[in-house]
What we know:
The complex is a heterodimer. In chain A, 31% of the residues lie in helices and 22% in strands. By secondary structure, chain A is α+β, with helices and mostly antiparallel strands.
Amino acid sequence: MAECGFLAKEKINTLIEALAKKFQVFVPVLEGEVVLFRGFESGKSLCLSRPANLPPKGIIFPASDVLFRFNFQKDPEDPKKVSVELKENRDFPLTIIFGCRPCDAQGFTIYDRVYLTPETVDPYYRERREKTTIITLACNAPFPGCFCTSVGRGPATTEGSDLLMTELEKGYLFVPITEKGKEIIKAAEFEDGSPYQEEAKKVQENAAALVRKPFEHLEKLPQKLLSLFENTQFWEKEAAKCISCGACTYLCPTCYCFNITDEQVGNTGERIRSWDSCMFFHFTLEASGHNPRPNKYHRLRNRVNHKFSYYPQKYNGVIACCGCGRCIRYCPMSVDISEIVAHAQGA
Amino acid sequence: MSIERLREAVKKILPEVDVVIGYRQGFDPLHATPYFISQPEQVDQLIWNPLCVQNLCSYLPFLKGKVGVIVKGCDSRTIVQYMQEKLIEREKIKVIGVPCLQVISVKKVMAKIDYQVAEEVAFEGENVIVKTPKETKTIPLAEVMPRKCLTCQLATPLQYDILAGEAIQANKPAEAFEEIKEFEQLSLEERRRYWEREFDRCIRCYACRNACPMCICQDRCVAESRDPHWTSQRANLTEKFMFHMIHSVHLAGRCVGCGECERVCPMDIPVAKIKKKISMDLKELFDYQAGINPDDLPPMYTFKVEEAKIKEHEL
């Protein structure tokens, strides 16, 4: 068995159909002008020409996840006695994310450090993560706003992926990164990919050279941002145009903050974990009415610092931004996080 | 209108205000971004072209002090509506009006250039020319016009303290709500399916709400409130639908049609369509258009026993 596989372009659908027999497969599809990850169905056409508007993070970390259902029952003999019945929701199928981009796949490794820390493992996250195989498509060219090479990554970075595909002239080269990736290569009918490795390398290098570089030299950045923490003038200026919506955080493959609520009607309900956004006023609103981040500049500062200062200080210098550019590309006001970082470096 | 004339106007206003809000180039040549100018040397970066799409008036209710703002005709309805609802002190605002016949929809341009990186953008005559790594594409402006510009009647702003350029006449047909009337020909079932498909993509990022100049509740929005608990955190269609209905109904008679809600949607949901339907109904029932006359009172702010166009009493 060859180390890597090759597949002609027209055979991609056959591959996915074969995979769909064993896994639930999520693929990027075009809906109107929007690219979204949807469960694969025969006849659905893939859109591999650009990254999805929304990264596939919701497949492992759902936008709204029912953790368990609860049911309060009163004792008919003594109505003051109430018992509660809990039903956990942890039946997750084997899953494949097909055709996400390297930045999307790396996003999960940012989550892993948080949700798979041995002392505080998140069982919901772990189970979905373990059951998911990620087949990533390397980028052949940058897309508007993206800057992966500035954050020490690139259009063909393998971290977080199980299998990396590179689009070549006649087809795709599949290089397994993990055991899960090797399993996929073994199971499906691939040609030997070795003759194509040279071509793939060139494609990947070309793409990396084209990515814009809004900033470099990240070593001192976490400390530099901390030193700017109290610089209200700096942050007010950077945040002036921000409208405090959650588009940047919800579209971000590395934003992992959540809210937990009980949605109850009568005696029954669900405990739900849903995406939250540090850009919202309510995110830090305390029960007393006090809000430690009452202004939008406090909140934008948090988003930038979390990714470029707090996270790297906690986790060995790893920047919690993959440079996918979605927060820039889709920001209503074109707030540019890479520009803020560059400004911080120069401040 | 020349950029020099606009820069001149901004320089003239700047000593009288704390900040002037205009536009500069964003992360690439296809994106303009709001620019807060407080120093004269910043004025050189100011731009004006059809990419200057954002409704800058939306910042006004949240800014203290004296503010100068660059305002297109369509955006000027926001100023008028704010005056009606006493959300700004007009004398604290210096409105720099810009004559404008159309902006462009960046989303439509992105589709035309196959979502490539725009390396250079130029405007020549009736075209926008975009250079990408693959090609140089000449696109007629008319093909990438946002819907609001198709029926623009306000080429010159309704309100301004300085007009940067000459007043011009609009050159588009008046709004006849054809798109809405056509949509209403669909059966209820078809319309329901349409909105289910569209709202299914909503991620409740609230970009539409926060970009809306008339959504002034912002941090106190009922969509996020736990008490009253009108929407839950479930990411299902019912909740998404409920939020959009709350948003739309709160805008009845107040929506100034700036289209920001739809422009900013990262999921490309045609949310302005609902607001347009409501505006159409308001026009029919009350012969009213929001954001035109500062002395008007929005119809939903008042109650008359007998509305001229509502024949309920005859029932």
